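Page 42, continued from yesterday. The earlier attempt failed because a stray header line got pasted into the input along with the sequence. Redoing it now with the clean sequence only.
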Amino acid sequence: MTEPTRNEPEAEICVVFGALRSGTTLFRLMLEGHPRIAAPGESDFLVDHLRPDGRGGAHYDLDGLAADRIFRAAGIALPTTTGARRAFAEMTTALRAGHEGPLVLILHRHLGRLLELLPNRAPVLHLVRDPRDVARSAIGIGLAGNSYYGVRSWIDTERDWDATAPSLGGRPVKELHYERLLERPEATLREAAALFGVDYDARFLSYPERSTYDLPDTALTAQWRNKLSAREVGLIESRVGPLLEARGYAPSGAPRVAPGLATRSLLWLDHTRGKWRWRFRRFGVTDPLIAAIGRRPGMGWIARGANARIERRITETLK
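This time it went through. Structure tokens are written below.
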């Protein structure tokens, strides 16, 4: 894998791949400030609705795409075809609208699916954050009910990266740590700009003017040390295993806790209870219950109103 030290020719499409709660939103807001970069937001809908076509290719499930909240938030039209390459080209062209420079796609999963649709020169930036902070952060937005389950999406993303890395070939690739982005934002953003083939621009750090995010603050790193118990840290480190050090993070020294069947069952119950508690607090009791019923086969019609109200509430409170 190569790390450019100078600007390469500008790529049409670039990829930022990282786990949920790893700083992808903050990084996207930074990129959005560059006048040449199109950074429209999360792009998982570009891969979530790809389906095998039975002939070695793929097609898009347009119904699933139309129902995807992130796709609708992107404000682009449904593709005119289900064919993967043509539909992908239509959507990425629309996402780039108004920008002459590279389009940066933010992805949390299914990197291999995306690479099949991209030219070999498309740069890939791997954004990594300490999984112990990711686990803690996931609880705060309702992705998990406890830290043991909060780290699961980080593990899934990083395993996806390891499985896909051998197929990256000669693409320009860089690993960027969230903690370094906060500690040395200008130097780190210069390296990212070089990867994407554009010049550094001071407007990378103008995002507080157009969002609720503050300027980089190193106090936001290693929060797990004060906000997680030794048992929680031990459970996380046991579940993450060798990936912790493979991604450049030192073990805490806390005893690792490998839960047995009974403990895993209790952790799952606590996780489920915590997620429901978060949903009730955020959306009330009725709409989440109706939405859950609507996920059963043939029952989607009953949840349309509830889902619309939940989606509206999410949109209103997004940072």
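Notes: The CA atoms of residues 145 and 269 lie 9 Å apart.
Reminder to self: strip header lines before submitting.
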